[in-house]
From TrEMBL:
One of its GO terms (biological process) is rhythmic process. It comes from the Eukaryota. The lineage of its organism: Eukaryota, Metazoa, Ecdysozoa, Arthropoda, Crustacea. Its main location: nucleus. This is JmjC domain-containing protein 5. Transmembrane segments: none annotated.
Amino acid sequence: MSEVRNLFPRERDDLQLDKIDDTKFNPSIRHLFGEITQMYLKVRNNSEAQFSETDCSTLLLKIDSALQYVWETLHTGQWKDVDPEWRKLYSYVSLFKALLCLELGKDEDSGLVNAIAACDMGLIMGEPILDGLLSNIADSLNEKLWKLSETKRAIQENQKEEEDSNECYPQMNKENFVETVHVPSIEKFLLDIMDKKPVVITGAMDFWPAMSESRWSVDYVRKVAGYRTVPVEIGSKYTDDAWSQSLTTVNEFIDNYILTSNATAGYLAQYQLFQQIPQLKKDILVPDYCYLGTCDDIQVNAWFGPRGTISPLHYDPDHNFLSQVVGSKYIRLYSEEVTASLYPHEQHLLFNTSQVDVEHPDLEKFPLFSSTPYLETILESGSMLYIPPRMWHYVRSLSTSFSDCLRVECQWYGIPNSGPFRLARLGQIREQ
Ligand SMILES: O=C(O)CCC(=O)C(=O)O
Ligand SMILES: [Fe+2]
């Protein structure tokens, strides 16, 4: 375990605390942070004689109250307005907590699991610090736990048997099919496709490591990320009242929602998993089409879930390359011009989402919907769907599915789905 412990900064200077502007904090939290930092350095330098187990527990209490205080601040007002200094503070305190968890856990699995959870909370809620240190620590610990569990693990079957799923296939009309193009040239993409129409692009993912020998099996995801904490959406769609979000480990998510038929859907949705677990990013190759815009900010979001997840009809501001790695999805597309016939929500946080349940529309309430033209496709593993900015899309998974969505020119248009996770979307973050 000492190699993981060695990843934690040892000296005050190594912590680069000068990069954090603590004048943004009130005196009590500044004082608490100073105290915690000092204690962390003592623990890190292994001054066992001076630092007993009781001291460690006291430190943990201080750390937890600091985290709680910062959490409150992070959840006040809109996510986009949160001062990055508070997020950095959250990351530092999470780093200190991770070391404490290892110390208190005495190298038992539970200590490692708690340490990973601390790092992940820092990654989800915080700002990157110290060159991705939280990510590196969590990655090393995950690998350790995976190796430890290998000896205990019974041979597990990889995939749940998918029951005969014909009835979940939609009735489709050939005339509405989205055009399919096999690896279009850059010129063709630029002149005929970009900003103009959606197309299914085949062949562009053939060399993705993620696609080789079905690399992205459930077992692989467990290996790379099993013990990592991620936000998941619970409930079939984010417009439902019963919809909520929770934080869970990838292993728990797989056990409870992917490998078990569950009455409530769980969806690891629109999440920047690759920022949190950069190792997974090596498995995908961003296609050249993504570099054609004026902006090179490419965001990769993961969508991992069982059969039956639904993303209600909505639009996003970016060019989107929805790339299907595992399984298949039914997708319906409507152009921006027909927006009025799609009855967008009036609530300001949902203005980019239609009120219509696409496959079971209430035509008395939404009469224009039935005659509104659309395109549709079943996106299969190995294909990517180009969705132009502001084109409406509805997505339902037809099997266990893993998609990566590559977004280009992500800009803040006030569209509320760019929060730490989609908590921000429904205004569940308290307004001041
Ligand atoms: O795959 C899904 O469930 C939704 C995908 C989506 O909305 C997007 O990539 O923008
Ligand atoms: Fe979308």
